[in-house]
Amino acid sequence: PICPGMECAGIVRALGDGVRDRQVGDKVMVLARSGLWQEVVNVPASQTFPMPEGMSFEEAAALLVNYITAYMILFDFGNLRPNQSVLIHMAAGGVGTAAIQLCKTVENVTIFGTASASKHESLKESGVAHPIDYRTMDYAEEVRKISPKGVDIVLDPLGGSDTSKAFNLLKPMGKLITYGVANLLTGQKKNLMAMAKTWWNQFSITALQLLNQNKAVCGYHLGYMDEEVELLRSVVAKLVNLYSQGKIKPKIDSVWPFDQVAEAMKQMQEKKNVGKVILVPEAPKEESKKAEN
User: Fold this and answer.
1) C-alpha span between 252 and 9 (Å, rounded)
2) Across residues 151-155, what is the average pLDDT?
3) Spatial strand order in the sheet of 27-31
4) How many CB atoms lie under 10 A from the CB of residue 153?
5) What are the pLDDT digits (tens) for 111-135?
6) pLDDT averaged over the chain?
7) Where do the Enoyl reductase (ER) domain residues begin and end (predicted)?
8) Structure pTM?
9) Would you identify the CATH topology of the domain 7-63+228-280?
């Protein structure tokens, strides 16, 4: 059996030999490749990060993957600066909401965000200047109507033909950062035809072709950075500082007990969530009381 879960939050119960920078009782966030959907986990101390004052366990469980990803894409790869423009796909999801908040820490950044129409009001409230309904509109055309030259940065979790569209939307000196292939997932069951189509349409470019375009293409996968301890620790320190200043705050869509994990996954699969879907070992006490009544 496989146990998923790249991030969690909890209290330190015990320490291994030689661990000096953690104490039993510490509240920590944890980052790993997998295996964290459990009540008790055993991880290297280097994969734990102290929770900042005032942060809930739900917020802590929602911080690391989304915000590390969004931060490194926007600032390490994207070099986001004042007066630039950003296109964020799946803007109402976990990485999307993190990216919006981080964009707001830079002066006068124009945010385009794709999401279903039902989520547009929420996106506007969070700082998206131009929400676009990808189901009924061609987002590339909509961006061009407002910004004929395109945008400075595109966050691409989609893959396939959308990566090509993203590259063509970049201004000169623009940056495309691809960090997923969500187009491979078309429903609850595998669709081999859709997977083949996405693979066939995957964006490809040579170094010589890039030379004439004056654009950059970057790839990001947090799961393959688990050995970059110091780098990740420095990013988390910056994020904790931003949280403590009130500039970022993980957005929780809903909280589900472990025994409702299928319903929680369905919430995301049907794209109903705005923000992070959180799993907890047991149902929140308020919900338990309602069930009893």
Assistant:
1) 14
2) 98
3) 7-11, 27-31, 48-50
4) 27
5) 999 999 999 999 999 999 999 999 9
6) 91
7) 1-279
8) 0.89
9) Quinone Oxidoreductase; Chain A, domain 1 (3.90.180)
Structure token pair of residue 177: 């950062």
At the second CATH level, the architecture of 78-219 is: 3-Layer(aba) Sandwich (3.40)
Rounded to an integer, the average pLDDT of 231-244 is: 97
Q: Which two tokens stand for residue 93?
A: 């999801």
Extents of the domains making up the chain? 7-63+228-280, 78-219
Question: Does residue 143 contact residue 112 with C-beta atoms inside 8 Å?
Answer: yes
Q: How far is CA 289 from the centre of its chain?
A: 33
Contact 170, 151 (CB under 8 A): yes
